[in-house]
Amino acid sequence: MFQTIRHIVRKEFIQTFRDKRMLMPIFVAPVIQLILFGFAVTTDIKHISLAILDYDRSFESRQLTSSFSQSKTFDLKYFLNSYAELEEAVQQGKAQAAVVIPENFEADLKKGKQTSLQVILDGTDANTATIIASYISQLIARYSENIFAEIRGQMALGMVIPQPRVWYNPNLESSVFMVPGVICLILLLTTLILTSMAITKEREMGTLEQLVVSPIKPYELILGKTIPFVLIGLADVTLIICAGKLIFDLPIRGSLLLLFGVALLFILTTLSLGLFLSTISRTQQQALMSAFFFMVPAMLLSGVFSPIENMPKVAQYITLLNPLRYFSIAVRGILLKGNGIDILWPQILALFIFGIAASVFSSLRFRKYLE
Amino acid sequence: MKNRIIPLARKEILHILRDPRSLYGSLIMPIVLLILFGYAITFDIKHIALAIIDQDSSSLSRDFISRVEGSEYFDLLYLSSSSTGFEKLLDEGKVKIIMVIPKNFSRDLSKGEDCALQLLIDGSNNNTAQVALGYTSLLVQAFSSNIILEKLNSKGTALQAGVPPIDIRPSVWYNPDLRSVNFIVPGIIAVVMMVLASISSSLTIAREWETGTMEQLISTPARPFEITIGKLLPYFFLGFIQILLVILVGTLLFKVPLRGNILFLFCGSAVFLVCGSGIGLLISTITRSQQLAYMLSILFTLLPSFILSGFIFPISSMPRIIQFFTYLIPARYFLIILRGIFLKGNGIVTLWPETLALLFFASVIVLACARRLRLSLE
Amino acid sequence: MHFWPLSRSRERMDSIEVQSLSKTFGRFTAVDHISFRVKKGEIFGFLGPNGAGKSTTIRMLCGIIRPTSGEGSVGGFSITAQADEIKKIIGYMSQRFTLYQDLTVEENVDFHGGIHGLSPSSAKERKEWVLRMAGLEGREHSLTRELSGGWKQRLSLGCAILHRPQILFLDEPTASVDPVSRRDFWDLIYQLSEEGTTVFVTSHYMDEVERCHRLAIIYSGKIIADGSPKELKREFTGKEESTLEDVFLSAIKKEKSDEK
Q1: SS3 (DSSP) at C4
Q2: C-alpha distance across the termini of chain B, in Å
Q3: Which of B44, B123, B155 sits opposite A170 (nearest CB)?
Q4: CB–CB of B170 and A156 under 8 A?
Q5: Which chain B residues contact residue C65 at CB under 8 A?
Q6: Residue B317's Cα: distance from chain center in Å?
Q7: Distances, alpha carbon C215 to alpha carbons B354, C71, C149, C245, C252, in Å
Q8: What domains appear along chain B, each with residue ranges and CATH number?
Q9: Taking the domains of chain A in order of start, what are their residue ranges?
Q10: Are B178 and B260 in contact (CB under 8 A)?
Q11: Cβ of A157 and B291 within 8 Å?
Q12: Contact in structure between B279 and B287 (CB atoms under 8 Å)
């Protein structure tokens, strides 16, 4: 039995890597994706191009302006002279936000009267606009603090100062968040796509029939065809963890053994899915489409990109059916928080159940389909 | 010559129709993405899970806590006066931030001394962490301001309701309700178009090589250029149908505004589709395996257009090197055009640089295809 | 690039002429300096084991791949310089690759007609002829993939001769087809030959190739025998009753001993 499986595995490897260029998407691409996601993907806001229309031109207004220009978040690019210029700047996309300092800014402040600052936000990018608004609020609040400082000094009032300590990711690097996510995504991508396409390709070429009429038992065929992709998947995980550590100094606080164990459970599910997809696809293109159809929502509704807690309730319930959700929680938990089985057992259990159910279901289907 | 392109195109259309799953998939996928991105994915974070340890238990600390509770920034899930076992909450992911109100909170504040509010934040999602920090500063400042106001009032000092002294009046242009859908819909068009165009083009050619029917085609009088155009033309039109679908669903169902010129939109889409199909075609000249063609397409189109085009993640926030890199990505320019047309009502007068860039890319790609096609039809 | 000198008349006696044609893939020589001629109207068989170079040769003649060296002409046109002209006058059939499985019988025929630029009236006429010849009248709307081997083969042949090519190239046309269909197939081939079509067919079925007017045996990329079945039997086994298989085996034996 093991002989047969070993031969099928060998054949699969030979076929997959016959074209040396296959090495590219299987091994090089994950690293590229890692770099892309680690560096480029950030919801962190920096260098927002900002325009200021200062009607006051006083000492106070210049102070305010300089606090904007000193901030890392904003790139103070435009000092405008008229409202028309402001409209043009925003319309043309030159400035994403604009602040209008009214005429009596300094005078009002000195008098202790409240003054209003108009803040114009380009709402085209709704997410960023919200964050920009929040940053501006914080900046203004800090500025106000200074004004208060005097009064407070006079009145001997204390101020509350937040003292943050950030756990797991002290520098708040987005790569720390993204890299574990990339591990999950790559694993899903490679195992699902490769499996479903490989089996469908044999069907397209007609060689699957030959395997069926040989004395190979169905389970030997299934194991033989899926084991190579398990190995490739695990190799990819190793690759990304190493690259992550090298390039991004990815923290590895938990047990790698546990990580690989959980990965294996996850792979069980994805391979089964790939197997299932190959039974319902006649051509590779169909297999692809079907895989895509499952993958994209799975990736988006998994917590890899955006937190599940912030999704609408309906979406949150849907994620409960998504193995990727449990896997990503586990991966982040192990790598970043050093979690062990004692904390992650719900996720592991869920993955286990998914894995068993998926593999039983698809094996049965595959069996039937072979006959 | 034209006579040969028509039977080739007709054959391709038949292939497409005989594969309903792929056809419907490519029509439904954009809509599914629209729904997901428009509603499920949000980086707008509220109701962050919070735990507070109140070691002071004074009326001032309770005041602070009720402020925090009352805001929609945080969801107060755990409140206790002892700090034992609280760190486990972070490990288990039950809360994302813990605030510790120290013992001398009200005493220090009343004496006129500053007081530290300890924060333990789960940094694994850096975005949430930063937002949480931001909210905390705002809450803290509002709280401090309020103390001052009360003190002033109790002393009868005339600092009018000018606390805080600077009031912010935000006004959001083009998208006053800050709906994500409004900025997702234009983006979806760019991303999905690029991916589907390139995947379909590369796959359809790779498939004929893999099944061997390409050889038969070559033995006929049909020229390589005719074979290629005949195969790509139907997908080109399919691309338009997809765009139309997204626009219809986006504007009618999701009420996304379309303020600019639709003709300009379609022209821009045509150029962009040429880019996408061209890239797919180039990929098919590199490999005849469908598997490899697919993976290369994903690598060179999906990832760049999704991540580096400014679709979700702002380009201005990326490291400088990567920002330079984004200039090489057609989707970046198309996205600006799309958002300009949909939300700002921009026309060619404003968008000419991006249009020029797209045309440039399209021509480069077409030229590259023409060259490689000649060389490699063996 | 060599220019094959064209004769003034297109009615050459030799439909196909090949001189020292070679094709190498990297370090592997698939076709090694072969030369032969095929007369117009002849049925010419190209016999050899798998991997001998048969398909490669046909592909070069059809303009699908370019020779590494040597010259050839098909219908008077040079295969290196005038491949486009050649494609207009030839038909190519290979069992697996001529038809699109997910198209119907009719759609496949229509497609081939369109590709070869048939006028609407002649396309219609030829389509009816092909359907009749293949026995597929009434089954125009069946999906090609649902047809059995014999029908597919006839349909493939039909599509290949739709445009009445002067020269027909058949690459292993009877692989996986039952004997009855095979015989019917060859009857068709004879008919075409009588009408003046030159037929170039490759095969590894010894008994079939008996029916060719002339044949060449290719082995390891080289032609080791060339002539009519009768001539070859006389040459290699001395007996007229021997089969081509005997001829084949003895030709190979001779080749191997010549090599030493």
Answers
A1: coil
A2: 21
A3: B123
A4: no
A5: 378
A6: 14
A7: 65, 20, 26, 13, 15
A8: 19-41+178-376 (no CATH), 48-155 (3.40.1710.10)
A9: 15-41+173-370, 48-155
A10: no
A11: no
A12: no
If you count residue pairs, one on A and one on B, with CB atoms under 8 Å apart, how many are there? 374
Q: Rounded to whole angstroms, how far apart are CA atoms B369 and B352? A: 26
Instruction: Indicate the pLDDT class of residue C13, thresholds 50, 70 and 90.
Output: low
Residue B374 forms contact with C (CB below 8 Å): no
C102 vs B10, B15, B378: nearest CB? B15
Residue C177, both tokens? 């087809």
Angle between helices A174-205 and B180-211 (to 10 degrees): 30
Q: Which residues of B touch A133 (CB under 8 A)?
A: 170
* Rounded Cα distance, B349 and C241, in Å: 88
Chain B CB within 8 Å of residue A206 CB = no
Whether the Cβ atoms of residue A17 and residue A27 lie closer than 8 Å to each other: no
Q: Hey, what are A205's tokens?
A: 């070429």
List CB contacts of B88: < 8 A, sequence separation 6 or more.
Answer: none
pLDDT band per the 50, 70, 90 thresholds, residue B276: very high
**Partner B contacted by C96 (CB < 8 A):** yes
User: Which residues of chain C are within 8 Å of residue B21 when distances are taken between CB atoms?
Assistant: none
Alpha-carbon distance of C201 to C47, in angstroms, equals: 9
Residues of A in contact with B211 (CB under 8 A): 204
Instruction: Compute the nearest-CA separation of B217 from chain C (Å).
Output: 8
Q: What does the alpha-carbon distance between residue A115 and residue A123 come to, in Å, rounded to a whole number?
A: 24
Average pLDDT over residues B259-280: 93
3-state secondary structure (DSSP) of residue B173 = strand
Q: How far is CA A370 from CA A212, A216, A265, A364, C170, in A?
A: 7, 11, 25, 10, 34
Q: Is C61 on the interface with B (CB under 8 A)?
A: no
* Residues of A in Cβ contact (< 8 Å) with B350: 91-92
Q: Give chain B positions within 8 Å (CB) of A138.
A: 134, 137-138
The two three-digit tokens of residue B343, written as one number: 């939300």
Closest-CA residue to B299 (of A328, A189, A232): A189
Give the integer Cα–Cα distance in Å for B141 and A159: 8
The yes/no answer on whether domain A48-155 falls in CATH 3.40.640.10 is no
Nearest one of B277, B284, B325, B321 to B301, comparing CA atoms:
B277
The answer for A 330-369 residues in CB contact with B (under 8 A) is 332-333, 336-339, 343
pLDDT at C95: 63
Q: Does C102 touch chain B (CB under 8 A)?
A: yes
The pTM score is 0.81
Per-residue pLDDT tens digits for C30-75:
999 999 999 999 999 998 888 788 889 998 998 888 899 999 999 9
Beta-strand (E) ranges in chain A? Answer: 48-54, 74-80, 97-101, 115-122, 160-167
Decide: A62 and A70 in contact? Cβ < 8 Å: no
Question: Residue A138's beta-bridge partner residues?
Answer: none
Say how many Å lie between the first and final Cα of chain C, rounded. 34
- Flag if C111 and B10 touch (Cβ within 8 Å): yes
pLDDT digits (tens, 9 = 90+) for C232-250: 888 887 777 778 888 888 8
Which of B7, B14, B19 is closest, CB to CB, to C114? B7
Nearest chain A Cα distance for residue B343, angstroms: 7
Superfamily of domain C14-259: P-loop containing nucleotide triphosphate hydrolases (3.40.50.300)
CA distance B285 to B206: 9
Q: Does A63 touch chain B (CB under 8 A)?
A: no
Burial of residue B348, with CB atoms counted within 10 A of its CB: 0-12 exposed, 13-18 middle, 19 or more buried:
middle
ipTM of the complex: 0.81
